[in-house]
Each structure stands twice: as C-alpha cells, then as structure tokens.
Design goal:
The complex is a heterodimer of chains A (113) and B (114).
Chain A lengths: L3 E4 L2 E4 L5 E7 L5 E8 L3 E10 L2 E4 L6 E7 L2 E6 L8 E8 L8 E2 L3 E5 L1
Parallel strand pairs in A: 2-11
Antiparallel strand pairs in A: 1-3, 3-8, 4-5, 4-9, 5-6, 7-8, 9-10, 9-11
Chain B lengths: L2 E5 L2 E5 L4 E8 L5 E7 L5 E7 L5 E3 L5 E5 L4 E6 L8 E8 L7 E3 L3 E6 L1
Classes of the chains: A mainly beta (113), B mainly beta (114).
C-alpha cells in the first residue's frame, strides 16, 4: 500500500468553527489532491498541489483552503465549517502524469453539527 | 469538458453470476480511464486502467474492462461474482489539464447475493 495517512480519521465539529485535516505521504510524490465523497456525486476534487507552496483549485473549492509547506504534508482547512461540508474527505497522491495511478488515503469522516 | 456517467447506482447479482458495471465517458480528446473499488470504510484502490496500449484491460481480482471508442464506453466485467466483490465501484477519466486530475462517475454499489 502507498504510504498515505490522514488525520484525524473521524471528527465532529460545530458550525462556524475552523477545521484542519492533514494528509501525510512517505512516497515523495509531487502531486497531492483533496477530494470529498458524497452519495450520488462520487468524488469531487477540492484542491490539489503540484509542489511545495504550489496549489490550485478544483471543482468544489469554495469554503476550503490548502497549504503545502513540505513535500510530504498537504493540509485542508475549512475556514468556517458548515453543515454542507459534512462529508468524507480523501487525500490522494501521484506523480502527476495523466496516465498515472492516483493512490488514496483511508479518508477522514467529518460531521458538522 | 470531460465527464463520466455510471449507469445504475446499485447493481445486485448472485454469487457466480456475471458482473457488468457500466461506464460511459465524454471527452473531446483520447481519454485515459480508470476503475477504482472502495470497500466499506476504506479508501479507493485501483482495479485497472486504460492508457491506450490495449483496448481490453485486465485488472486485479479477475476484473477486466474493454475500451470502445465508438460507444464511448469502458464497462467493467467479471465472469463470476464472489461475495468478496461486494463494494462500491467508481469509473474515472483523467483530465488533460495539469496534474492528471480525475473526474469520477457517481459510483455503483455492487451487492452479491449468496
């Protein structure tokens, strides 16, 4: 299995509070991605990174920010959590070429009350 | 723009029966296509991928998929279902923008009856 960990694995928070999710890799892959999974929508890309301090928006980036200060860590922050951000969040890594496999972490289940 | 449609959010088969999960794509350029599987409370793992080398792609656990350009399809099949195949399956297309971002279908949940 690719060396990807996510923390926390489960979190319950209240509306309006900031939340940070962490993705850590040991594979030295250049690209890292954050997706959210919701029933009926599959997985949708939130943000991705193509190097240290290099990030870009995905399909559903509103209300989220990211940071990558080291190759191995990619942080996803919900500035002010809302109930619509209740979801399962997955981190993925790859070398970045179009044909390359993305490897996924175990996910973080977030509940916003 | 590229997109993926999976036909059927739930598919139920009997153990030993053929598994057929449907995926159609839309792309103005030759696509790279993937099938991922997700077991309960786990992340996604790659079943197989099409990267233009061969139209019939074999993957893990006895699954295979055939790329049909004329039908814009990439259906996933397995000749004989096992109970352990019960999971959610996602079809995805890799974009030509920077980073090979994946666009996923809605997912198909496969149930296998004894």
């Amino acid at each position: 299995d690719a060396g990807i960990t996510q923390s926390p694995r489960h979190k319950v928070t209240e509306t309006g509070t900031p939340v940070t999710l962490r993705c850590h890799q040991t594979e030295n892959h250049r690209y890292m991605y954050w997706y959210r999974q919701d029933p009926g929508h599959g997985l949708r890309l939130i943000h991705y990174s193509y190097g240290v301090k290099d990030t870009d928006k995905g399909e559903v980036s509103d209300g989220y920010s990211v940071s990558r200060s080291k190759t191995e860590d990619f942080l996803l922050t919900l500035e002010s959590a809302t109930s619509s951000q209740t979801s399962v969040y997955f981190c993925a890594i790859s070398g970045g070429q179009i044909q390359e496999t993305q490897y996924f972490g175990p996910g973080t289940r977030l509940l916003v009350l | 723009a590229q997109s993926v449609t999976q036909l059927g959010s739930h598919v139920s088969v009997s153990e030993g029966a053929l598994v057929l999960l449907r995926c159609n794509y839309s792309s103005s350029v030759p696509p790279y296509l993937f099938w991922y599987v997700q077991y309960p409370n786990q992340g996604l793992q790659l079943l197989l991928k099409y990267t233009s080398a061969a139209t019939l792609v074999k993957g893990i656990n006895g699954f295979e998929a055939e790329f049909k350009k004329s039908e814009t399809s990439f259906h996933l099949t397995k000749p004989s279902a096992h109970m352990s195949d019960a999971a959610e399956y996602f079809c995805a297309v890799s974009t030509y923008n920077q980073g090979g971002k994946l666009i996923f279908g809605q997912g198909t949940e496969l149930s296998v009856k004894p």
